[in-house]
Every structure is written in structure tokens, then in C-alpha cells.
């Protein structure tokens, strides 16, 4: 068995941000089930909160999925950027949905409160940052290029 001695590309800051964000959302999803249990899957009950954020089991599952995606995609540049676009689009849509759902318990199946909506807007912004953060530029040596002989 042979191993490559080629250096691995350095991870960009956006990749680490994707990892951290994914880990946080995974932990929030797990801890959320300790608050809500598994009953009232789409219940609209703002008494079930985690650090001031209203949750229900469906909301917890969304957090788990986002966390798993972040942990699964962070390790490559393309994967981290894909995760960023997923966050931007997913949480951008959720933010807009939340603007309408806040005033209408009939459509608020994710149990969103004002704090959630702000967090979803910020999560979309973090997704944009991950998606478009400039890649680290690295100098690649060129071998066999024209050189001057002394």
C-alpha cells in the first residue's frame, strides 16, 4: 500500500465555519428532543423553548439534518460551499416563511417565534458567507519552467 506524499490543500476559513455551524446545529437538534420529546410533532406551543427559541420535534429534525449536512460537507471546498448555498436558500426561505407564520398559528408548523426568525435570517447570512468566502490563494511551484543557467 502506498501513501501520497502530496500536501493536502489547506482548509479555508469557510470550511471551518461550515464545520462549526454544522456541529452547533447537530447539538441543538439533539438537545431539542430533551425539551420537546417526540409528541406534538408539528405542535405550535411557545412554552417549549431552548434558550428562548421555540421548537417542536419537526424543528429538531430540521436542525439535525442541517447539522449532519454541515459535518458531512465541510471537509472539501466544494462541499463546504454547497453547504453554504443550502443554508442560504433553506434558511432564507424559512426566514420569509417565518414572517408570515409568526402571526398565523395555523401555518406555523415549525413553531417559529421572533427569536427563531432572527436566527434563521442570520443562518442564511452565514450560508452566504460560507458560499462566497474567497478561497485561500496558494502559490503552486512550476517545475520544468524556463530558468536561467549561471
Mind explaining what this structure looks like?
With 150 residues, the chain is mostly helical. The chain has one domain. It has a two-stranded antiparallel sheet with strand order 1-2. A hairpin with a 2-residue loop joins β1 and β2. The longest helix has 25 residues. The model has no long low-confidence stretch (mean pLDDT 87).
Number of strands: 2
How far do the termini sit from each other?
A: 42 Å
Which word captures the global form?
elongated
Instruction: Estimate what percentage of residues fall within beta strands.
Output: under 5%
**What's the arrangement of strands in the largest beta sheet?**
1-2
- The number of domains is 1
| Major sheet attributes | 2 strands, antiparallel
The helix count comes to 4
Approximately how much helix is present in the residues? 55-70%
Structural class: mainly alpha
| Helix and strand run | HEEHHH
| Rg, alpha carbons | 21 Å
Mean pLDDT: 87
**Poorly predicted ranges:** none
